[in-house]
Amino acid sequence: QEEKKQLTLKVEELERKLETTSAQNIEFLQVIAKREESIHQCQLRLEEKTRECSSLARQLEMAIEDAKRQVEQTRERAASRERAAQSKMLDLETQLSRNKTELTQLRRSKDDAERRYESRLQDLKDRLEQSESTNRSMQNYVQFLKSSYANVF
């Protein structure tokens, strides 16, 4: 009976341990369930964030491509403007060169014309002076003739 009593006590003690272990198991199962739910929620949030990141990455790629296109278009416009400016500059330089050449020719023509007119003016002055001299001589001769005729008559 003593042995039975000890065995009964042992069984009771084992049953208490079993109940305690069962209670602990239930608690652990509840903790595991909560953790699994938390993990599931985290996975859902992770998937949502992953989708959001993918969307943002696509938007970023599109924005980068758009920016590259705009930069390329701006470069092309700047290059076109630069070519147009270079062309205009060359045209203006050519026109300036022609104008300088024409100005030089006009100056030469003006100088030649001035020399010719100076020469012609000098000729006319010389002829005028010669004419005046001849005129004076003739007046002197007429004066001489007048005085000669006045003396004769």
From TrEMBL:
Protein name: Outer dense fiber protein 2
Alphabetized UniProt keyword annotations: Cell projection, Cilium, Coiled coil, Cytoplasm, Cytoskeleton, Developmental protein, Differentiation, Flagellum, Microtubule, Spermatogenesis
Basic and acidic residues: compositionally biased ranges: 71-85, 108-130
Region ranges (Disordered): 71-133
Ranges of compositional bias, category Polar residues: 94-106
Gene Ontology CC terms: centriole; centrosome; microtubule; motile cilium; spindle pole
Location in the cell: Cell projection, Cilium, Flagellum; Cytoplasm, Cytoskeleton, Microtubule organizing center, Centrosome, Centriole; Cytoplasm, Cytoskeleton, Spindle pole
Entries under InterPro entries matching the protein: Odf2-rel
Family statement drawn from the similarity comment of this UniProt entry: Belongs to the ODF2 family.
Species per Swiss-Prot/TrEMBL record: Thalassarche chlororhynchos
GO biological process: cell differentiation; regulation of cilium assembly; spermatogenesis
The keyword Cell wall biogenesis/degradation appears for this protein: no
